[in-house]
């Protein structure tokens, strides 16, 4: 069955959200979406059914305290312009980049066409994939790898 989802808030600053005016003795499901510089995420998996108590039930003891904390902070939603997606340049850099590694690379795995290694630079640890481009087979493998990486869409790649 299709569920009519209702947006409750676009700004949740804590690990909870106080929802008012729910019908007594009624079941509700909840789900969450996230906003970052890439836009809104897909909705989470719906929660289990949460039943509200029957009419005449008193509010939870902590209701007023949570309500005060929730209202205390100004909404973040007005900062959307700062979160707007930046232009991402997916062009290939054809000039070779040389890095001065501070420590000897630690080999993780060696495959037919490349070696994966951990290298340390400026106090940070990176994983690198090194291709042997001295023969045509290694050159082709490197080109295939870069072609595959260009098709990926992830904020940390």
UniProtKB/TrEMBL annotation:
Residues 1-55 form the Fibronectin type-III domain. SUPFAM superfamilies: Fibronectin type III (SSF49265). This is Muscle Mline assembly protein unc89like. It comes from Caligus rogercresseyi. The lineage of its organism: Eukaryota, Metazoa, Ecdysozoa, Arthropoda, Crustacea.
